[in-house]
Amino acid sequence: MGSASQYLKEQIAYDLWQARQRPHPPIKRLQTQ
Fold first, then answer.
1. Average pLDDT by consecutive 10-residue portion of the chain (33 residues)?
2. Residues contacting 30, CB < 8 A, separation 6+
């Protein structure tokens, strides 16, 4: 669980960073989980 939690945190942080760079449509990856 610890590694999975860390992975999710990194994904969220990366998504937020991308959002600051430029607008983008909703990421389908989040919906397929």
1. 88 88 67 57
2. 15
Q: Is 31:25 a contact under the CB 8 Å cutoff?
A: no
* Distance separating the N- and C-terminal Cα atoms of the chain: 16
- DSSP state at residue 8: H
Structure tokens at 16: 């937020």
Under a CB-based contact definition with an 8 Å cutoff, are residues 18 and 24 in contact?
Answer: yes
Cβ proximity of 27 and 17 under 8 Å? no
Assigned token pair, 33: 């989980």
Q: What predicted TM-score, i.e. pTM, was given to this entire model?
A: 0.48
